[in-house]
Design brief:
The structure is a single chain. The chain is α/β, with parallel strands linked by helices and about 400 residues long. About 40% of the residues lie in helices and about 15% in strands. It has a 5-stranded mixed beta sheet with strand order 4-5-7-6-12, sandwiched between helices. It has a 5-stranded mixed beta sheet with strand order 9-11-10-13-14, sandwiched between helices. The protein has a two-stranded antiparallel ribbon with strand order 1-8. Helix 1 packs across helix 2 and helix 1 runs parallel beside helix 6.
């Protein structure tokens, strides 16, 4: 444990994120409520009303307006944050590209929820996977502690002068957002020192140095703009590692680009994001007690995706089950495609994809056991048995 000393508290994931935002004290926060992220803004508006922050809270008429206001405030030179879920993120979609194209380090708490139709308010990753090509840095969280910690680290990552890109911190709707767990908050002073003062780049309100933003760019320079944006994303990996190392020194809580669990000698490996990892770890422990070599890889940073590092971590497994909580209709699951790309140079493990938990359907231990058993069999035989009847699957 580092120098930070705080009491242990029992809070929901939404309350943890709201507490992080209180400590971050952004200049502007535009918001429009949508389940299951509404609780974040409910808690934060109480902080505004009680004078615990000096944030300018803007209640807008839609999520599109929320991101538009965030872009305007960030371009003006402010430190900005917001939160949303599902259809709210989908309504922001046009503006997500503008936020990244303008290189604005906006922080968004994304409480992952299924996209309609049919209407569903529960957690899966279809919203977060829908924004994966929008130019935002994306971090995923297993529990409320990780959500809080990633929120504290997010501004340091997004605002780094080599990056200057918006960032989304993802956590599972209801499973994390509404569940209460014990966790540790940093002190306000430590958060303030860790995050530092915001240094705006080319703010519009700097009237002594007038500038233009949003100008028309045609075929002559559009690709050059996009190339610079791509190069900024390529620098995120090192910044995430450096910021996480500083955070570990301060708190004793260590984060990498991804987490591995009993993976070093694993012949069968599972890959999964967010809250499912906790259930999977428990089942892996039971299989290990039986002498079965199985392990887990849980990505933390999904964009930019650390292909080289993840490929190296998984290359020695004989078979890998990639579990997606989102579908790419007509294709394989989004996480599967990234893992397959990471392992392409190694030409080693047998890979297969399983879609689970859509619309918030529970991932039960028996479901994990099924995935592990299939992976063990694939490791032994080198082939994958395809499941054709979806009605036989619990998830």
């Amino acid at each position: 444990m580092g120098a930070t000393s705080t009491k242990t508290v029992a809070v929901t994931g939404n309350q943890a994120v709201a507490e992080a935002l209180r400590q971050l004290n952004p200049d502007v926060m535009p918001a429009y409520p949508i389940t299951p992220s509404t609780g974040i803004m409910e808690s934060f508006t109480s902080f505004v009303s009680n004078g615990k922050v000096d944030t300018e809270m803007i209640l807008v008429e839609s999520e599109h307006s929320a991101m538009s206001a965030a872009i305007g405030a960030a371009a003006a030179g402010g430190r900005v944050a917001t939160a949303t879920s599902a259809q709210g993120l989908a309504l922001m979609w046009e503006m997500l590209h503008i936020a990244s194209g303008y290189r604005l380090p906006i922080l968004m708490a994304l409480v992952n929820r299924a996209l309609s139709a049919p209407i569903n308010i529960h957690g899966d990753h279809s919203d977060g996977m829908g924004m994966r090509d929008c130019g935002w840095v994306q971090l995923f969280c297993e529990n409320a502690q990780e959500a809080y910690d990633n929120m504290i680290m997010a501004y340091r990552i997004a605002e780094h002068q080599d990056v200057r890109l918006p960032i989304a911190v993802n956590m599972d709707g209801f499973i994390i957002s509404h569940s209460i767990e014990s966790m540790r908050f940093m002190t306000d002073d430590d958060v303030k020192k860790f995050v530092g003062e915001y240094l705006a780049r080319d703010p519009l309100l700097d009237i002594d140095n007038p500038k233009s933003i949003g100008a028309l760019v045609l075929t002559d320079y559009y690709m050059e703009h996009k190339r610079v944006q791509h190069e900024a994303m390529q620098k995120v990996k090192k910044v995430v590692q450096d910021v996480s190392a500083d955070f570990a020194k301060l708190t004793g809580r260590s984060y990498g680009l991804f987490e591995t669990y009993r993976l070093e000698d694993a012949e069968a490996a599972i890959v999964a994001l967010n809250s499912a990892a906790g259930t999977i770890k428990d089942e892996i422990d039971q299989y290990r007690e039986k002498g079965v070599k199985v392990g887990l890889l849980k990505p933390r940073m999904f964009r930019p995706f650390p292909y080289e590092e993840i490929g190296a971590a998984l290359k020695n497994a004989k078979a890998i089950c990639i579990m997606d909580r989102a579908d790419s209709y007509g294709g394989m699951g989004p996480l599967f495609m990234e893992i397959a790309s990471a392992l392409a140079p190694h030409r080693g493990p047998v890979l297969f994809n399983r879609i689970y938990g859509l619309g918030g359907r529970d991932l039960m231990p028996a479901d994990v056991d099924q995935a592990i058993s299939e992976t063990i069999e694939a490791a032994k035989t080198g082939t994958v048995k395809m499941v054709k009847d979806y009605r036989t699957l619990r998830s």
